[in-house]
Design brief:
460 residues; 67% helix; mainly alpha; Leucine-rich Repeat Variant; single chain; extended; 23 helices
Amino acid sequence: MKLFSVIILIIIILSAREFPDAKINRSGTSRSMESQKTEEKNIVPVKDKSSGSRKSKDAQSTDEKESSNAKDDDEGDDKDSAVVKIKDEKNDGGPEQDEKKTLYIEETLEYGLHGDRVEALSKIKSVQSEVFKKRIYDKLIRIIGSDDDSDFRTKVIYIIADQNLPEAVPSLIKALDSEDENTVIAAAYALKKLNGVSAKEKISALLKAQDMTKGSNKTDAFIQALGEFKAKEMAPFATDAIKNTKTSKILRESLVLFLGNIESAESRQLLLDLFINQDEDITIRGFAVNSLSKIGIKDTSKEISKVINEIESYPMKKRVKYYNLYIYSITALAKTGDGTVMPKLIESLKNNSAQIRIKAIRLIREMKDKRTIDILKYKMKYDPSMKVRKEAEIAVKELEDDGEKDKKTDEKVQGDGKDKKIEEKLQKDGKDKKIDPRIQDTAVKDKNGSGTSDKKPAPK
């Protein structure tokens, strides 16, 4: 009996080893094969779309839970955008690709986060089609008057100015009423660049309402825009503000330049008084003589020369303080046609200040004097300042290009002169030469399409 029990126990142990997953009931015996088959029938196979294998309903339920959890984790991530971004691709700017880019830009500008909208603005330049660009530009113009994001609206205004869109002028004029100062500054800048003269009256009223005792970028933007519009009617206002000692120094400087930009001849005496007044701020004096040169009044050359000579008489340490005024004075004197300026400019190229040398080179470029090409070539190669070398290189190229144009013009004029002389000689020879009457008829016949004109006259 004991032996029989041991044999039964061995069989049970061996069965457990052969079927490790088999469940054992409370009595210690294995479950029947029929019961296992019944459980297998109850398991419904489900096809996994990603791998093509089959999963049970339990496995599928687990996957769905994990997917749902992952989705919940991602919902709070700011980096995810509701709009699918188009990848930058190297393409030939075809219409199909342009249409996709335009659709992305339009939707992002409408619904995107702030960062995505700014990024969309940078993609506008990649659109090649003028038709699609027009769609985007129309969208930008609408944003000026409707968007609540003032920072983004300001960026849009600057893009409109850079793209030179005059159709945006009415919207830009409305933007001048914005409570956001940066938006107003951007609108004034854009109107200046687009030459939105229709905004002149409104900007003039806004300028008169400003506190001139406080320096302000907004006020300065108004002054610059009106200077571009040649608002001469604002000259009296500018004159009074300049004379007022309470006016901010920065705004006085802008107003002095404004008088030059509008070419106000009536302001000649005021500008001259500012220029020669040694107690006046040096920058104001420099801007005053600069404005005098823009007005084009040549009878001020005597006063300008006097200031130049006075600065040249200063000791070196004191002269450094007046270098900017010195260059402005030389520039103004050059525009009056004074021939003594060029040696002074060449001397300025030897100045220790790189800024003075750069200003001198730029003035030489304006004057286009070929006598300076040797020293400019030297500066282009050996000046210790990289910026000066670059400016000198540009000046040399312009002078050489102008020289080449002059050479071609001279050759053309000479060629035309030679052709004219040859023509005159031929005409003269034709008048002097007598036609033999015996071949005259033949020549006439040849002219009419019969006979030959090279027949020799018959010998007598």
